[in-house]
Amino acid sequence: MIKYDNPAEDNDFNCSDYCLSPREFFEKRRTSKRPYVFDLRSSEAHEEENIPGSLSLPIEHFETSIYQMPFAGDILPYGGEDGEVLTAAEILYDNGFDSFNYTDSYEALFSNADATYLTITSDAHKKIDDELQNSDELKAVQIIIEPTSPLKAIYRPELVISALEGSIKLEVDGVEIFTERKTASYLEGTIIEINDEGHLEVRNPNLSISKLNGSLEEQIQLMLDEQVNPMLASHGGNVMLEGIKDSSAYVRFGGGCQGCSMIDTTVKQGVEVMLKEAIPELVGVYDVTDHSEGESPFFTG
Q1: What domains appear along the chain, each with residue ranges and CATH number?
Q2: Most confident of 23-32, 108-117, 186-195
Q3: Residue 292, class by beta-carbon neighbours within 10 Å (0-12 exposed, 13-18 middle, 19+ buried)?
Q4: Given a cut of 50, is residue 5 above it in pLDDT?
């Protein structure tokens, strides 16, 4: 909640009250209905590597930018090693914001990852041991994580000779596990197991993309729930399926997406592409929203 007209007038700010451990930070991001994750480092550092779904907002622009965005959710900033998050936290507190948390630094998010983030089932462990022992080259398991939204990802395992560049290393029950630093926020709760076909499989009950099945309407709804709406939520928006006709979907945008002058770009280059790539039988996506009734704080004509 934000109290725009009630800035803090005391000096009781205690930064430790708002600081989360890396595990708590990732948990908050995953469970919040509307998380707004901000990278306070330089735009160059953000471009080089960042938490997927985070927005670049260098600390020097933070104070002048915070009132331009619809914070009906949780503000979760992270920074570098120069104390940017402490500055941001105090700015938020002094301006009456009361729904925010931060973590110490970007590096801390990865340096604290450990074996408790992962589980290997006994049959998967045996299969990994057998395959590594039968190979003169393979040494470890690389977990490939491909984010599809800030809250969903596709997981797959690979037996590798060495880690991919930019990976962190965990040792789980004697097995070396590698995963890329930038996707570590998707790691906690991950399970390595054997699927019905007898192959190694990686999934995360909280973050894995569900397999699409059922009617066209059911598949579209699952995509909206798991991939599209988490993406739009970072901009304060959402989309609902209004109906299906002639293998085309008719959708209605709400929140920050209603009244957005860039909605055609959002539909054609974003939502429609995501849906049609995942559901080949879908012919088209049409917007039935009355955008004259909405107002977007992000995009204007």
Answers
A1: 15-110 (3.40.250.10), 113-203 (2.60.300.12), 216-293 (3.30.300.130)
A2: 186-195
A3: exposed
A4: no
Structure tokens belonging to residue 101? 């948390």
What does the block give as tokens for 213?
Answer: 């099945």
Angle at 236 between CA 234 and CA 239, to 5 degrees: 95
| pLDDT digits 0-9 by tens, 144-159 | 998 877 777 889 999 9
275: number of CA atoms within 13 Å, CB side? Answer: 32
Amino acid type, 295: E
Task: For residue 219, give the 3-state DSSP assignment.
Answer: helix
SS3 17: helix
Tokens 């470890």 belong to 140
Over residues 110-157, the pLDDT tens digits come to 888 889 999 999 999 999 999 999 999 999 999 999 887 777 788 999
Give the Cα separation of 4 and 261 in Å (integer). Answer: 27
Distance CA 213, CA 223 (A): 11
